Amino acid sequence: MQRTKVLYAIQGTGNGHVSRARALYPKLIEEFDVDLALVGGNSDVDLPSAPVWTGKGISMEYGGDGSVDILKTLVSNNIFKVFREVREIPVEQYDFIINDFESISLRAAKRRKVPVLGLSHQAAVANPKSPKTKKVMPMGKLVLNNYAPVRDSIGFHYQRYANDILLPIIHDDILHAYYMPGDRVVVYLPAYSKAEISEKLSSLPYKFSIFHKSIESEQEMGNIRWNPISGKKFSEELISSKAVVCSAGFELPSECLHHGIPLVVVPIAGQYEQWCNAEALGLMGVPALESLSSSKLENALAKAIAQPVKPQHYPDVRGEVIHQIKSWWERMRK
Q1: Tell me: the pLDDT tens digits for 279-289?
Q2: One Pfam family for this entry, by name (predicted)?
């Protein structure tokens, strides 16, 4: 019997989408013939298999101060190239598309009437029962609801706020690791420049291990160790960290919650999803800062280390994800 052909289209504007794909891919290929498509070039994490198609799509650019640079984002995106990529991506070669908040493959699939199943954290954030930020962010909300709208989806969140929301997918090397607190605070703040991070952290009474895409080789500068982006090295440092400071994305905070690693988040200014995540994390006891401030970060770290969130010990949900995908596909074929 011929196996079902699936295109797994991944948003490549950040590391979280690719990290989820890395964890899920080994289970997916047990059931389907799966090809990968990567749209966006900002991810620093390697895919589990070479993509059959890559594109630029629509991506956001950061200003180095913790916010989205609107002008830089507008300049870097070419609407004519977006239309060309929608025409070029070969979605018609597949039985269905798995879409992780990715706009190009979604629009191509709708044009060519190829079934699409959303598989993303954003689907859970958009759920009416999930926590929402109290900030008024109409543009961010508009993007969340219209960037990659799908009829059918599987969403992931820190907690099961609704029956159709699953808990996070955690990669094996973190899921089954043993957390042993060390003496360094691990930092990953991709929306901030090296200079901005150094200015805010160099005076604090902590040792930091900072991962930043501008770093090519390990550097020691006072209380800061700068590291190039490396998935293996990052995982090793994460499970031996004193605490973690990161943006309010999904995958990394989920890994911290899984082990009960003290956590402070700094949501990226202008990203509605991150502020909703910060709201959800705050309800769980995780400190969130409006921006990177030396004094506020020092206080937040002290609180997070003294009162860490109870380990969530997330189960391996990949089997349930595969079951839901198969059930959805059976319904679509009838």
Answers
A1: 999 999 999 99
A2: Glyco_trans_1_3
